[in-house]
Amino acid sequence: MSSSNNAEKIVLEIVREYLSKKPFFSMKDIVEFVNNRVKHNPDINKNKIELIIKSLIKKRIIISGNKLMKKDIIDNPTRNEIYKYIQQNPGKNINEIMKAHNLGSNLALWHLSALEKFQFIRSKKIRNRCIFFNFDSNPKYDQLYYYMANDIVQSIITLMKNERPLKITEIADGLKKNHNTIKKYLEALTNLKLVEVEKEKSRNLYKLNNERYLKAVKFVRRD
């Protein structure tokens, strides 16, 4: 282990001890605390301690103003289960997460906030809903994951399978859904190129692109 890595390890251990006693910290206080513990170590001075702590904050191993450390986040069984659930089910919203884990909104938000703060997950607004994804996943596919997991979308796709091109009114009536709601979902599916639009006089007809849909199914289920 290099001297730099060894210094970081020493500082991190002392920081862990400090945070176990105090929920919050200021840079000045924690540098002083660490310095008092390593004052006989010639390789670590105050400047180096501050640089190491700033590096730990930048890497989000610790977060200023929060007593939790990254390793603590998934030590919590419920939080760990939520994290695994989001990894396996990208594109879920808070209501689905609450239902899957039998949680109230405040507790679910607290766990999700901790996971997001330490960059285990990330959130994104889609159709005015807060949707959650694994932090390292590619944002390019967020819309695909969200819509492929949506119940209304799946109902639309099921209705359209092996069917002639359909009008919006036929889809809305068949699913007993509001016309404007179906229109919005069809626009999203068209943008994702999962649905094709054909013209019949002045009307749009919608048809499932089976090839692209099957590729999308394989993609979202590949994990």
Question: Any key phrases for this structure?
Answer:
Arc Repressor Mutant, subunit A; 3 domains; 223 residues; alpha+beta; 12 helices
Written overview of the protein:
- It is a single chain.
- The chain has 223 residues and is α+β, with helices and mostly antiparallel strands.
- The chain has 3 domains: 3-69; 77-137, Arc Repressor Mutant, subunit A, CATH 1.10.10.10; 150-220, Winged helix-like DNA-binding domain superfamily/Winged helix DNA-binding domain (Arc Repressor Mutant, subunit A), CATH 1.10.10.10.
- The protein has 12 helices and 7 strands.
- The chain has helices at residues 3-21, 27-37, 46-58, 70-73, 77-88, 94-101, 105-117, 142-148, 151-160, 168-175, 179-191, 210-220, and strands spanning 62-63, 66-69, 92-93, 121-126, 129-134, 195-200, 203-208.
- The strands form 3 sheets. The chain has a 3-stranded antiparallel beta sheet, with helices on both faces. The protein has a two-stranded antiparallel sheet with strand order 1-2. The chain has a two-stranded antiparallel sheet with strand order 6-7.
- The chain starts with a helix and ends with a helix.
List the SSEs and their pairings.
Blueprint: H1 3-21, H2 27-37, H3 46-58, E1 62-63, E2 66-69, H4 70-73, H5 77-88, E3 92-93, H6 94-101, H7 105-117, E4 121-126, E5 129-134, H8 142-148, H9 151-160, H10 168-175, H11 179-191, E6 195-200, E7 203-208, H12 210-220
Helix pairs in contact: 1-2, 1-3, 2-3, 10-11
